[in-house]
Write a structure and sequence with these properties.
By secondary structure, the protein is of the alpha+beta class. The protein is 20% helix and 33% strand. The strands form two sheets. Strands 1-7-6-3-4 form a five-stranded mixed beta sheet, with no helix packed on it.
Length: 70
């Protein structure tokens, strides 16, 4: 199932995305989450919480799902 995350700004960071998508409860958990889980952005693994996600990007987190930024 593809979950859609709408943003109102030009981009959102991966850390902010995890919170908006309700994968983590607080921004402080982002560093820990990214060290424990594989995250794929547009098919490439990326663990940088500051990675900028823009409209059209696809984020896949095994065992959590696939998300699209709108």
């Amino acid at each position: 199932m593809d979950n859609q995350i709408k943003i109102k700004t030009e981009y959102i960071t991966l850390g902010q995305f995890l919170k908006v998508a309700e994968i983590i409860q607080s921004g402080g958990m982002a560093k820990w989450f990214l060290s424990e889980h594989e995250v794929f952005i547009n098919g490439e693994q990326d663990q940088r919480r500051g990675r900028k996600l823009r409209s059209g990007d696809s984020i896949t987190i095994p065992s959590f799902g696939t998300y699209t930024v709108l």
